[in-house]
Amino acid sequence: AGDDDARAALHREIADRLLAGDDDHGAVPHLAALLALQPHRRDDLERLQEVTDRTGRHRDFAAALAAAADGLAQRDDGDPDLRLELLVQAADVHCDVLDDAPGAITLYARVLATPDAPDAVALAVSRRLSGLLESAGREAEALDVLTRRAALEPDGQIRREVRARAAGIATRRGDGERALSLWSAVLRERADDVEA
After folding, report:
1. What's 56-79 look like in SS3?
2. What is the rounded distance in angstroms from the CA atom of residue 113 to the CA atom of residue 122?
3. Do 60 and 31 meet the contact criterion of CB atoms below 8 Å apart?
4. Is 11 exposed, middle or buried (0-12, 13-18, 19+ CB in 10 A)?
5. Which of 10, 20, 73, 172 is 20 to 30 A from residue 192's alpha carbon, by CA?
6. C-alpha dihedral, 92 to 87 to 167 to 158, nearest 10°
7. What is the full per-residue pLDDT of the chain (196 aa) written as tens digits?
8. How many Å apart are CA 171 and CA 181, to the nearest integer?
């Protein structure tokens, strides 16, 4: 930890000097290194975001978030909730700012692949990921995400709609057994579902 603190202090000093000299671009890698070394420091995260917003280096911001998340996964004292938060934020940047659906899909999928992801996080991510996968024509993956999402949706109407979408994909893919299972779940929840 001492080495990390010393490296963080050095990166912070270099970033401060570069920013004072109006070299925002030069400061970005040092601010990214700070985030990787001390991902719990919100002020460093916010500072990196401000500088990358000013410089338009959003891809660097997303990469720094993902790198910090990866670093947390390697640490004994890594915070799994913070790791997921950083991955989701990186995916959101790819999706909402960079208009990079493949990059967002990769990061959102990593979140969903985390066995101990809290249900609230898995639900929010599955909502975003299912739409991206469907838009990309990646039906096999969309089917899996929609099935998981349906199990997490608290609202009965939305849950039925999600299961119906999943059943439609399963039907198109020729997976009759899965389609039947999904349509059965829809019907169990609401016997008068017209689409089924």
Report:
1. CCHHHHHHHHHHHHHHHHHCCCCC
2. 9
3. no
4. buried
5. 172
6. -60
7. 568 889 999 999 999 999 999 999 999 999 999 999 999 999 999 999 999 999 999 999 999 999 999 999 888 777 999 999 999 999 999 999 999 999 999 999 999 999 889 999 999 999 999 999 999 999 999 999 999 999 999 999 999 999 999 999 999 999 999 999 999 999 988 765 455 5
8. 11
Q: Which two tokens stand for residue 179?
A: 């389609």
Burial, 176: exposed, middle or buried (Cβ in 10 Å; 0-12, 13-18, 19+)?
exposed
Tokens of 119: 């249900």
| Joined tokens for residue 13 | 């000093």
Environment class of residue 22 by beta-carbon count within 10 Å: exposed (0-12), middle (13-18) or buried (19+)? exposed
Do 177 and 158 touch, CB atoms closer than 8 A?
no
* Alpha carbon distances (Å) from 52 to 4, 30, 59, 65, 160: 23, 12, 9, 12, 41
